Amino acid sequence: MLIPPYSLRSVCLACLGSDKSHNALKSLCKTQVAGAAFTLAEVLITLGIIGVVAAMTMPSLINTTQKKELETAFKKQYSVLQQAILMIKTDDAIDFEYENYSSGFKKRLAQQYKSAQDCGSITYNTGCILDEEDGTFTYYKTLNGSTLSRAYFDDGGFITPDGTLLLTEQGEQAKRTGYLVSVDVNGFKKRPNKMGYDLFMFQITEDGRVLPMGAEGTYWSSESARESRCDKNSTFNENGFTCAYYAMTDTNYFKNLR
Q: Any bridge partners for residue 158, and if so which?
């Protein structure tokens, strides 16, 4: 059984123009382009080679696509958070000093987002994200996959209508750090659930600016504090806290995630 010469001609022309094409595939393609037909065996061999090449390249393509999706979601959620804080400041006409909102900050932010679900508090082990029975926190990990400290985002969270999760720091620590909002840009049910991958921390300044943690004016803005909290090789339990800064300033940040 023969296959008409024109059936794979366009594929073969592309094959011959590539330096990376397999030699056996090129040999078959030369025959096809010259006008001869493939036998069934040759077609099967060709398809087999194409299948092997596809199997080798697909994981890389999928990984690249996932990273691009995370980058797009990060930028979108940063913009949405900025807009929400701006609207709160405009409507309430007060600064984001602790005395003005106290522990009601999460409720006010959720109201602005028209939240779809209250996620309770990790501190009191209620809602969407819980500690383990032994008291350890494993739901989110650090940038390199180690145990992550939840101390700066455990005071309450909520889910937005589009499925994004926001976690807040509005307790005693907020008096020192300012209000903190950590955003899981692809939702808490979707992996990898790692700080610096899909979970990013932002600080709300008293005058209503939303800054990626690590930027000038944030709690961990010094060079040493910033670098130690976004280090792929560190097991520090706050590793990933300042990665929002690098995600905003380094155009290759998401490409280099591993």
A: 118, 166
